Amino acid sequence: MKRTAFESLKNWKKSQNRKPMILWGARQVGKTWLLKEFGRAEYKQTVYLNFDDNPQLCAYFRQNLDTARVIGALETHFNLKITPADTLIIFDELQECQRAKDSLKYFNENAPQYHIAAAGSLLGVSGGKFPVGQVDSLTLYPMSFYEFLKAAEREQLLEAINKQDIHLLESLSGLLTDMLKTYLYVGGMPAVVDIFLKTKDLAKVRAIQNEILADYKNDFSKHINPNDIAKVRMLWDSIPVHLAREKKKFIYKEVKTGGRAAEFENAMDWLINTGLVYKVPRTLTPKLPLSRDQEREAFKIFMLDVGLLCAKTNIDLSSFYIAEPKIFEDFHGALSEQYVCQELKTTVSTPLFYWGRDKSSAEIDFIMQYKSEIIPIEVKANKNTQAKSLKVYIKEYNPKTAIRTSLKNFGFDGVLYSIPLYMIESLEDILKD
Q1: How far apart are CA 405 and CA 75, in angstroms?
Q2: Where residue 125 sits, what CATH number does that domain have?
Q3: Of 108, 139, 170, which closes a domain?
Q4: pLDDT in tens, 313-363
Q5: At what angle do helices 5-14 and 31-42 cross, to 10 degrees?
Q6: Domain check: are 296 and 231 in the same one?
Q7: What is the predicted pLDDT for the residue at 19?
Q8: Which of 118, 293, 359, 383 has the most Cβ atoms closer than 10 angstroms to its Cβ?
Q9: Is residue 127 domain-shared with residue 151, that is, in the same domain?
């Protein structure tokens, strides 16, 4: 599988100011595979330390953290010579060894010639002391739709998208919609994509997705305060309920009768920090900075992966075999909005917000900063693109640019871009033109 982050790692390797790299990400998004593949392709040898599978490796870091001593110990353990420019040293499951985490500071300051890349689940790696300012960092998300197309050997479809040939895209829209419909079900978790590409069996896809969801729930009891376990599980289980509503604002009283933010705050923060969910706050006034007028108690919550959302909501397989793409509309367009959220999280560097007011039916699904502009983005789940909320927003705030993404073909009227859902990953490239 080709991951976009691979190119970022290649740039890191070439950088004259390279620091030890931390590859962040939720569990099972492919961090270990990516680092090993990077080592295989770009270095003569890889030294791989997994502090979870082999906790005795932590012993090499318990004495002083002199980098020459640590390298010597690793050379003895692995029975090889570590040559700085030719060897990638991987610290995996870094959260399990605080002293190895501490050593990154000394490698950066005293031995920057060594190429060290570390990975760890956000379930634990963010805890404890961390060498702030001493590392480079990269976040890995589930595979995007474009990465899915590459894995499925549909590069020609990607070429058509990248060329932005409108007439060609119109002729391919049916095929692209079918591929997107498949992606909504399969999602971007690498193990799930792999089993789908090998078998084309959606029942096996669902089985792997359910295993991942079960693993996540088991992790809740390993990494958090016992008093918060039940709260985290209630929040996690409530996400599909909230996304299935027309107004997707998160309401604690729907998690538990009489539920309040203060009761669930720690559990919610933990769940967000793991990378398993994305929080999109509401802002009342779309002015820079968008965070200025965000509401602490008003936000939407999305899962990390649309395929896992499908499994969690137990969407029936038959929805994906019918000719009409009804799946885009089910649950008030929850899957379409989830998909757009994770595509934007993967490709857009600025935080996401949404706009709306409690006493108004108008609501813009996402707004984001692009250069000095604020861009409203409305998600429509089909070809019926009567965007009433977007019209209200445009009339009130007169933006230079607005986005409507749907199953409709590409178009532009001077202010409003109509971007097909299958092209939303190209949003920034489209805005550049």
Answers
A1: 54
A2: 3.40.50.300
A3: 139
A4: 888 776 666 655 566 766 668 899 999 999 999 999 889 999 987 677 789
A5: 50
A6: yes
A7: 97
A8: 118
A9: no
Q: How many CB atoms lie within 10 A of CB 358?
A: 10
Give dist(CA 170, CA 166) in Å, integer.
6
- Residue 173, classed as helix, strand or coil, is helix
The reply to whether 100 and 168 lie within a common domain is no
Query: What pLDDT does residue 125 have?
Result: 46
Asked whether 139 and 25 are in contact (CB, 8 A), the reply is yes
Domain boundary (139, 159, 191) is at 139
Indicate the burial class of 426 (C-beta count within 10 angstroms; 0-12, 13-18, 19 or more). buried
Mean pLDDT computed over 115-128? 73
The residues, ordered by sequence, that sit 6+ positions from 68 with a Cβ below 8 Å of its Cβ are 111
Structural domain span for residue 327: 145-432
The conformation of residue 65, written as its DSSP 8-state character, comes to -
288 and 330: one domain?
yes
* Contact by Cβ (8 Å): 163, 430: no
Count how many domains the chain has: 2
Question: Do residues 368 and 351 make contact, with C-beta atoms less than 8 angstroms apart?
Answer: yes
Average pLDDT rounded to a whole number, residues 48-71: 94
Same domain? 73 vs 214: no
Distances (CA, A) of 255 to 81, 238, 250, 251, 306: 56, 6, 9, 7, 21
Please tell me whether residues 129 and 269 are part of one structural domain: no
Which helix (H) or strand (E) segment holds residue 355: the answer is: strand 353-356
Do 412 and 267 belong to one domain? yes
Q: How far apart are the first and last CA of the chain?
A: 30
Local structure of 373: helix, strand or coil: strand
**pLDDT per residue as tens digits for the range 387-422:** 688 999 999 999 999 999 999 999 998 899 999 999
Q: What is the Cα–Cα distance from 74 to 46, expressed in whole angstroms? A: 12
Pairing of strands 373-379, 363-370: antiparallel
Distance CA 53, CA 47 (A): 15
Local structure of residue 381 (DSSP, 8 states): S
Alpha helices in 224-325 (DSSP H): 226-243, 261-273, 306-312
Do 162 and 119 share a domain, yes or no?
Answer: no
Q: In the block, which residue shows the tokens 């119109």? A: 170
Q: Is 139 exposed, middle or buried (0-12, 13-18, 19+ CB in 10 A)?
A: middle
Q: Please indicate, yes or no, whether the overall pTM of this predicted structure exceeds 0.90.
A: yes
What is the DSSP code (8-state) at residue 117? E
